[in-house]
Amino acid sequence: MTKLMSKTLAAAALAASLGFASTQASAAFLDFTVDEGSVPGAGANMFTADKLNGAYAEKITFDGLGGFSTTAYATMGQVLSNDGTTDISATTQLGTGVYKMYAIFSSSGNVAPSGPGFAFTGASGSFSLYIDPSNDTTFTLGADGTVLPTVTDAAADDYLIASTATLTSANGFLLTGVGGFFDLVFDDFLLTAAGSAYFVDPNPFHMRTNVDGDFDNFAVSGTQTVTGDVSAVFIPEPGSLALLGVAMAGLGASLRRRK
After folding, report:
1. Which 8-state DSSP code applies to residue 212?
2. Which domain holds residue 241?
3. By percentage, how much of the chain surpasses pLDDT 90?
4. Rounded CA gap, 114 and 120, in Å?
């Protein structure tokens, strides 16, 4: 058994035993419909999918007094259907790079020793989703987890399509010597007028975003830089958004970067 598989299975077993298993596993993927013709410069095209995939990077800082702060950016570029099993990116302008979708998000809370590791509890957070029609925006992480990423929009044409600052639940766990996971749940996930023109079904729009990645153990101190994968799926609860995974807890450097 590989090191990564051993760590993944151990973390999954721990998550299940603590009752923090991913909510994605317990909910069916729901279809959503996008009107890409609403994006300036994009051609007329509509697609129906049930999952978006991408990648993200974050900074997390521990204050040495039991608190943590994390900020991150993510880009979405892969489009899937059939419960996330069929890649339809080639039939979309998002998946072929005509334009870009990205998110800026943050969270802060407390961390404390718990059994064989550390428990994380979030107290506040925010999530904002944008469209970049020219696909030319770049990002730079802040100096630490209290500073939002710098967004450089060369064409000055990016626009907000959805946001929330209502964090209702945030829990995570780091198993010392193995790795860990994190689960954030947001309510009041609201589309802008431009967002409603882009996501045309379901109405009202509601989404869950699952963040996951390969991770290793780390010292709960100082400032860490983490990269990972991000996916977004719909859930039945209107206005609910969940961020799941190790990276929003800053749970160590990605194993992927070490290969």
Report:
1. E
2. 3-258
3. 46
4. 9
